[in-house]
Amino acid sequence: MGMAASQGRFLQLTSRKNDIGLQLTRLSNEKVSLSREMQNVSRKYQDGLNTKTLKWSNNAGVSYIDLSYSNLMTPSAMNQQNPYVLSDSSGKVVIASNYQKYAEMISPNGAAGGDWENNRTKILAELTGIDINKLNSYDNAKANLDAAQANLDGLNDYKEQTLDPMMRKFAGKGGTSALLEKLGTTTGGGSFASKGNWKEAYNAGDSIKISGTSELQGIANQLKKLAAYFPDIEKEDFEKGIDNSIKGSMTAMSNGTELPTGGTVTGSKDKGFEVNVVALVNSALSAAGATKAQDNAYAGSSKVNYEWYDTSKPEYETWKTAHDAWHEQYEAGMAQYNTAEAALAGIFTAAEEKEIAFYDAIFTAIAEKGWCQNDKITDTSYLNEMLQNGIYSLTTMTKSLYVDGKNTDGSAKYNYEYSTDIAVNNKHVYTVNDSDAQNDAMIEYEYQKNIINAKETRIDTRMKNLETEQSAINQMLQGLEQVKNDNIERTFSIFS
Predict the structure, then answer these.
(1) Cα(484)–Cα(447) distance, integer angstroms
(2) Cβ-count burial of 480 within 10 angstroms (0-12 exposed, 13-18 middle, 19+ buried)?
(3) Best CA proximity match to 73, nearest among 351, 373, 350, 424
């Protein structure tokens, strides 16, 4: 009976020992699995530390703000009242629900070619809060300014296409030296070093010797006669330019001071003065606004040919009659433009003008390029992802005036030039470490690490308990083995 009981106990302990061994194997495998989990957590943490995001900066990257839909598509100090239009791969403007109602007014189906102008006043009134009557008065004033500009454009076209070709029929020949020949010799008692007149002195690069301010003034007065050969330049401006070009020389002479070498005039009061002809003539004509000839015979030297006209030719009188009539109309046109411009400038404040210009650009793009809606773009993270992956781009717009002809009513025609590129190529957009993602990664890492550590602690405790139990079972089995051996030995000793 005792042997049977002992054998039953032995089998029970052996079964338990095997069960413990199996549990320890499973717990060991769980610890290995926890190591793999920790590796994954560490990898995600590292990825979080390396996460980049797009930020907006107005100070060359010194500080940043979020690159959000509102910051791009709503007028603010952040974007300096300039829109940065979100565009999809087809060029359509991507909008959220805040602009949907207005976009549908312009293009109900989102297609390109919508009508902004006929909806402009109503939409601007709602978006800006500016009274609609004020907007209408602006449109009227703008139409007047456009008409005034169109009138000036027509007058300028007439000058370029009709008057200027008429001038070429009495253009001077022979360059600057031929022009100076018409002045003859100098006046005021001065003389040339080696030549007898202006033309030869200019060609030789000689100097005029003078001894007083009266002679210098005489030279200035003689040069002023050249005004007659520049009919497209205001005579008063021309004469003022000549006076200014030698003003320093006259002042130095009257003060008796030494003049710097290398200038138009060299020398002192006691020694007299030498006026370099080439330098003085070039300085005078340039200061007076004379135009350099395209076929410059003196290219690469200090001498320059200027465009002049032989006003003694009969073609000059024909041109002058037409030019005077044109000039009178142009002066009246400028007065009309200035009046219209002043009236327009007084309607809106500077802030209102910027806000209107912002929405003009946004909705012109919607009309010309079409639109699509995606409310997810108000989520900064989603928008950032779409921009980083190049799914959406940023489009900037530049307004051009009077480059596309005229409207049917004669008013000026505007157009916008579009420049679309990936976000990172915009000068305000910077790729930086995502501090929010880094903080989230660190929090998640610590959280997951604590969970894994807690699991590992429980496994270690369980394994320790099982190992203790296993050790006790081994001792019990050894005891049973010893009892069994003792019984066998005792039994065999009885029969021996």
Answers:
(1) 55
(2) middle
(3) 373
